[in-house]
Amino acid sequence: MSESLLQRRERLLGPRLPTFYKQPLNLVRGEDVWLWDAEGNRYLDCYNNVPHVGHCHPRVVSAIAEQAATLNTHTRYLHNTLLDYVEQLCDSFADALSQAILTCTGSEANDIALRMAQARTGKTGIIVTDHTYHGNTTAVSQLSRTNAPPGGAGGHIRFVPAPDSYRGGTAEQIGVAFAASVSEAIADLEASEYGFSALLICPYFANEGFPDLPSGTLATAISAVHTAGGLLIADEVQPGFGRLGSHLWGHQFAGVVPDIVTLGKPMANGHPVGGVVTSTDTMAAFRESFRYFNTFGGNPVSAAAALATWQVLHDESLMQNCFDVGAYARDGLKVLAQKHDCIGNVRGEGLFFGAEMVLDRKLKKPATAFCERVANGMRNEGVLLNRLGINYNTLKIRPPLSFKREHADLMLSTLDKVLGETELKS
Length: 426
Hints:
Elements: H1 3-13, E1 27-31, E2 34-37, E3 42-45, H2 58-68, H3 80-90, E4 99-103, H4 106-121, E5 125-129, H5 138-141, E6 157-160, H6 171-190, E7 196-201, H7 219-227, E8 231-235, H8 250-254, E9 260-263, E10 274-278, H9 280-289, H10 300-315, H11 318-339, E11 343-349, E12 352-360, E13 365-366, H12 368-380, E14 383-384, E15 386-388, E16 394-396, H13 405-421
Parallel strand pairs: 3-14, 5-6, 5-7, 7-8, 8-9
Antiparallel strand pairs: 1-2, 2-3, 4-10, 9-10, 11-12, 12-13, 15-16
Helix pairs in contact: 2-10, 3-10, 4-9, 6-7, 11-13
């Protein structure tokens, strides 16, 4: 990317707009798991979950084009495609989760979820982890301690420590500690003017570094939430839609049943669609308490894009591919761990996995700066991935679900090369 393009971007869009990598990419085309820049260089996409079924999937592109050429309106008119999609979507959840609202983004979805919880409980206190992200509206941006707004978060928010399976002990110990933190936060909110409304989590704890938590680890914490009259909100923007391979939804993998589910990024393969799924009681309380309407949420083109993505996911058996290729790739990472001491831990599920980089395996000292250099080194070698986690030292590998074994082999061989060439230092 030329410097002039970066300068133009800052002049027109303002300063400090984030880009990936020290040398940002000027991408001009995508197909399946591949991306091309303006100079014709090809990159293997091991990062983006927005093109869930592959960049520019022909069926999704066709569905968008055909509907856009036929009709697009807001949802105060009747339209079958929206209903067809929501019906199929809700059928994939527990019976109680039977109604939905479509939005344009996951941020909007989480914003609505907070209001749904308020409508059901009459309270506004929210519990989240101390290393999470749930969007960028005024309401949900306050839930991110890592991106705190000026003046800090509102007094109605309580942060609890994010689970850490690499350093936090056994799964049972992690579950007990998390439940204790949640219970303490509930008591604190109940003693305040806000009261306790909901616990909002990504059931895979994606931004927290996707700790290895067996099914049932969260059961005690969720029981405490419901005993206190609160709701569980599951943010499925990252683990949902079959990303984990074994389960369609992250909360199913975690072994919990939420009261509200929020959806976003991968929902329509790049077309801006988000959503909220909940029970009839919660929906009724929300509709009675709040006047809500979304001009673009659930419009015919968006509904067509979402329905086509849903159909491709199932028709092409992408969940099974995700399960198989994910296991294959993680096995490859474990082989690399025998060669490279910087790999302290390999974990993940399906096609959402990675490796935690450490300076010392015995001390488990995070190799944060090293991990950033590795991500940039991979970019320079034509493979796109990134990093996240409590210490930002975990490689985040999250390709489209059409990712195959040959793509995993290329990613692994490139990572082997980059790890060997990058000095392990802080």
